[in-house]
Amino acid sequence: MRQKIYAGHAVRRLREKLGLKQSELAQRLAVSPSYINQIESNQRPLTASILIAISRTFAVDITSFGAEDLDRLVADLRETAADPLFKDLDLGLQDMKAVANLSPAFAHAFLRMHVALRRTAEWRASLDDMLTAGVAPGADEAKLIPYEEVRDFFHYIDNYVDPLDRAAEAAASSLGILEGADPAAAFAAHLARRHNVQVEVGPADPDAPLSRFDPRLRRLVLSGVLSTPTRAFRIAATIAQLEHGALVEATVASGAFRSQTATEICRLALHNYFAGALMLPYRRFHDLARRLRHDLDRLVLETGASLEQVCHRLSTLQRPGAKGVPFYFAKVDRAGNITKRHSATRFQFARHGGACAAWNVHEAFEMPGRTLVQVGEMPDGARYICLARAVVSPSLRHGQPSRAYAFGLGCEVAFAHDTVYADGLDLKAAPVAKLGVSCRICPRRDCDLRAFPPLDREIRIDENVRDIVPFTIS
């Protein structure tokens, strides 16, 4: 059963943007003013007929009234509200839903403020150590915050940037990528022809940069250690830098980032976004993924892209009117750090701390190269088919450790049969892993893998009773 859409804030924002009163909007939509008032106050959901009427009357994309963003916003608010700072306020789920529904802008401001407060507290706690080590105060204070700000920006736009995606698709068509041309060769020839930029492959020197573009000499040098898909990706990112600056800057401006560092990080991320979209053009990749039922090995084989590029692209297929299966995608290192996270689903990643130990991405390191399949349930009851695979990059010299990552990709079980990974899997009878965002905010009381008690619950210790987890949660 589809979730009811309560989007009073979106209707109110549209009405105010058009300069209409509630009575005037009601007249345009052929409904009563009281009905509009109830919609805007979230006393009534948006019906299909009202959504269609809004779309036809005001030429508005009705997907902007979806509930997915609010689901993620509520989950982020729940995690933040678990901070002991708010312990005595008794913030309940309904409070957070009310704030997210009635004023999502305020909710985002609250989250941003909490991140700044938390980082300030961490900075103060580590100040003595930094001074002792001779590190100048302020040297690294803001490094992590801009990355989180950019991650949140992509998180709340479903990791889809329409203008850049369409520009990349048009460029792919003109370069012959849609007809099967070799991407790296086509991209290099395009740079030479249009920009007089020569692409060179340097020696396999582990100490050299992976790529270096010299605008003065009109030369792009790629490291010899790069794989073929990665070389194509780096050339494509240079095309974005040279040809689509206006689109990139407009998107960066829409993020209203607080620092120059965040602006630069987002600009780099958008160059990479274009590169991925140029290598895997939207409709061609969307149709191929549907036809192959999202078989990762087949997609890698038929596109020539890397596994990471394929997984990342699957998480971006959210074009209005031509949406793909909504996937989440995460890249996790051996220590459990989530180094890359994107989601077009309600699946939530920890903003702070490690990921859930029950998630199969951790198990994937024990079986590199094998795709693990897991049915997981988050605390909100949403179930997902979770895929995980570990890849190992060999060391480039003696004594250098190899780099290992696990990729997590998943979708809600409602879409599971659109993937080959549901074949032979009884979704009703399969074991279900009880997942959480992170131990510190997980409400589960019976998890044997719990590493920390939840921040928002009292715990009890009985010195005469010892179990796997040495405390009980009240």
UniProtKB/TrEMBL annotation:
Q: Which UniProt keywords apply?
A: DNA-binding, Transcription, Transcription regulation
- The residues covered by the HTH cro/C1-type domain are 11-65
What is a GO molecular function of this protein? DNA-binding transcription factor activity
Q: Which Pfam families match?
A: HTH_3, Peptidase_M78, ScfRs
Q: Which CDD domains match?
A: HTH_XRE
Transcription as UniProt keyword: yes
Q: What does the entry list under GO cellular component?
A: cytosol
Q: Where would one find the signal peptide in this protein?
A: none
Q: Which Gene3D superfamilies match?
A: lambda repressor-like DNA-binding domains
The family annotation for this protein states: Belongs to the short-chain fatty acyl-CoA assimilation regulator (ScfR) family.
The protein's matches in PANTHER family, at most eight in alphabetical order, are given as: HTH-TYPE TRANSCRIPTIONAL REGULATOR, HTH-TYPE TRANSCRIPTIONAL REGULATOR SUTR
Its name, as the record gives it, is HTH cro/C1-type domain-containing protein
Naturally occurring in which organism (per UniProt) = Xanthobacter autotrophicus (strain ATCC BAA-1158 / Py2)
Classification from the root reads:
Bacteria, Pseudomonadati, Pseudomonadota, Alphaproteobacteria, Hyphomicrobiales
